[in-house]
# Entry
Amino acid sequence: MYYLGIDIGSLSCDSVLINDDETVLATSVVPTGARNKESIARATEETLRAASIEKKDVKAIVSTGYGRDRVEDRLSSVTEITCHARGIRAMLPDTRVLIDIGGQDSKSILLGEDGKVVDFAMNDKCAAGTGRFLEAMARALQVDIDEMGELDANAQGGLSISSICTVFAESEVVSLIADGTQVSEIVRGINNSIAFRTLSLVKRVAMKPDGFAIAMSGGVARNTGVVSAISAALGDINVSVPELPDTIGALGAALIAREKSA
Amino acid sequence: MEQKKLIGYACAYTPLALIHAAGFTPYRILPDKDCPDQAGLILHDNLCPHVKRILDRAMDNQLPDLDGMVFMNSCDSMRRLADAWQQARPDIKMTLVDLPITSSDRDCAFFQGELQELSSTLEEWKGETLTPERLTGSIQIYNSLAENLEKLNTELQRGSTYNGAGLLQSTCLKASCTAPEEMVAEVESLIGSAGEEQQKDNSVPIYLFGNVLPDAEAFKMFAECGAGIVRDDLCTGSRLFAEVATRAEGLDDLLLDYAAGILNRQPCARTIVEAQPGKLAKDVIAGAKQYQVKGVIGYSLKFCDPYIARLPGIRAALKAEGIPFLMLEGDCTNRSIGQQKTRIEAFIEMLR
Amino acid sequence: MMKEYFEELENGLQTAIDNNQGSIRMLYSLEIARLGKRLYSGEDKVAWCGIIAPFDLLSALDVTSCFVEFIGAMMAATNVAGDLIEETNHIGYSSDSCSYHRAVMGATMKELMPKPELLIGTTCPCSGGLAVIENLAAHFEKSFYLLQIPQDQAPKNVRYLADQMREMVSFVTKITGIPMDTEKVKFAMETSNKIREVLIEIFNLAKQVPSPVTGKDLSNFGIVMALFSGTESGLALAEAFRDELKQRSQNLTASGSNEKFRLLWIQNRIQFKNPIEKLLEDQYGAKIVIDELNDVTWGAVDPDDPYEGLASRAISIPFNGPAQNRVQHLQRLAEEYQVHGAINPCNWGCRQGTGSRGLIEASLKEIGVPVLNLEVDCIDHKKFTEGQFRTRVEAFMEMMDS
Ligand code: SF4
Ligand code: SF4
# Structure
């Protein structure tokens, strides 16, 4: 039998298909369009097609993410906090602190030794430190968001974006551009500022994070600049990134689907 | 000169002369250091940046050696700062002095009691016992400092020194962290040289009010934009040093005079005059008129409730008077004001 | 418009109650409707106040008094707060401040705030609230008196506040022209003392495991009951709550309950319609059994000389003084009510309650009570994003349930 996990986030809709051995058979990531339902259908279809499986052989679907209640034929819906925790345990079993920077909000999750969620913290209303913040900054810089990791790698460092609020930060970036500051330096500055925000989220669940295995999931984890900035901010603690970090939530959902229908 | 022990403080209402009389140098913890932003962990991120940056300094060990910290109960954020301090730096003793919102006789008497308690606390912190002579002496030193700063301002304005306001501000900031004896002399010499430097600039006279702007760069930028700040009303500016008149001789009466002096000084937004609701707006207008400025610039930190609530009234009152007004908002980081350069320039162009 | 609204509300509730369809919560809403009607009647002498003004003393002086935040909450409950708040953008009232106050200022601009006869500000709970009283005084060109609540119960502090309350009485009587009737004051104080006793009974009932309250029964209860203190209708209302809970508690022990998790709510509830209580109860068997402000922290007041007692009552409110007061109070409530978790809405812009977020969270965790920080605006429904909200609540419950 097969189990499907779907994570409907604000930016992308991810799905993961597993079998009874918890082996991942296929994954897909499609952008969340204006209509959730279509993206859900597309992601499901793509995944099933990639694994050459028919829908009727899927025993259970668990959905997660903001659009989790939109999946009609789901067994149940579970929040992305629980799903990311479940998913990361399958990929990186030692993880005790998980950082997930999503489009809408970023979270830090503290896992117990048994892998259960012990505590979590989410960003405040303002968008600083979220995927949306990163997008806004990329827009202000007129660079592609996927280029940002590379740009960061070329930076000397030393510059910091001091404004905390997205609105201030955005105009700070604009004025740095106007001053002729190199784009790569600005990118590094932005990453450092995200890292600071993240650091305080991590500290809210684990005041002294050293000694804990730390991992990061979500699309932003593909941005190597952000990951290394976070690692530096934590005091040079290694931050592990699993394969396909965007699909960790969906993977967790699939695993939960298997457990729940057992 | 022998290095005196330092007592930290954070609010312009702090009784500096009392701390000085106990044998300490009052040292203002300014929100001007670059430290990691972590105050939100203990408190919340939506809090006055002045308070958050001070806490960041404390959490990041960016403080001089302090023998204690004196907080004033001036607003919610300050209250929270005192709460957080105990958790962040249990190694630095602290005390909170209650501060009435109005200045009736009863309030002054109450505040006198608070000052009395503060002087016992300072004594416990190994300070000197308060005597009328010591207190009078310290009040006089601070009065001469205030007088000198006032003179310096007049001198700077008379000569229209380029960025005179910047010089005045940095002097005030230095004075807020330095023994007053030293500063009295320093300001005196500045007065002497200010007169010589009579370079005329054609800046537009501006009245500046608000809360915390401990940033020399900001004043440099005002000058570059052609804004000549002829008078400021800032927590970190001239408001901190104001003369206090005392007549009494016994310690109790002297403290009462001093208490009344502090409660009646140029108010910030947190102080209220019951008989004149909305007085802050009138004060701003009076200031603008007295100094014959062409426009008013307001500067407030984000999340400062006392100012947030009064700004609409001030805006409306200035409008009714036909005085042009520009409002700037900041967050105690160096660049937040830098970004507003265009707005300041445009405002000045409009006034020319 | 508001007057009609409250009249209709009153009539509707009265009919339901007369037809025996009334819950205790309806009796409570009925009292609120009556207060609203009096505030908007144009006949009563109205005083706009800070949250911890002595409402019993003021009503004994024939003044219809109310804290302004009540109007903010009413506007939220009727879903108009969002528009009023937007209105304040036009006058440059920063959105970084508390929406209770922005809603009140918006209502004032739209002439939805009844004109007061006088105002009484209180320095507690917040700088923002005090500023609004000053602004309203300026707007309506009315006199205001300020009660400055000291930080602790030191005798000199109690005296300072008691003297202010005495002066407040002369301030009020001078404006209303109605001299103080000592018998009336005495009666009000006696009634307040009785209400106090009944409140203690109510809260003790709520403490039982399982609790006879539902998550909504006592929402906003403590803070609103203060408005009815010193009055016979307030006493009757409190007694009705007590009797109902007693009744329920007897039935409960017989029938059992589906109460799985007991929760502590920090500060005030979300004031506009929202799914939280239902979500918690239906999906997770979780029930809010205690709100921070549902507690009696003061002693009885001497009816013949109430001022010291009233002063001490105001000082005792846990929102006053150091955050340590709140923290200890919350820890005590968590223990007494045997809660499994706590929810802090962290009302956007509140420096008083929300400003202590980290301190509160740490201290509750210390005693094994996890805290969910919601980060919502409790008044402005336009800022409410149900998705984010649900994710936080559900993840929190999933965590407790695992
Ligand atoms: S800037 Fe405003 S909120 Fe901050 S300490 Fe000063 S008065 Fe308080
Ligand atoms: S929510 Fe906070 S700021 Fe708003 S009225 Fe209440 S205590 Fe004051």
Summary: Chain A has two domains: 2-85+247-260, 94-241. The mean pLDDT of chain A is 87.
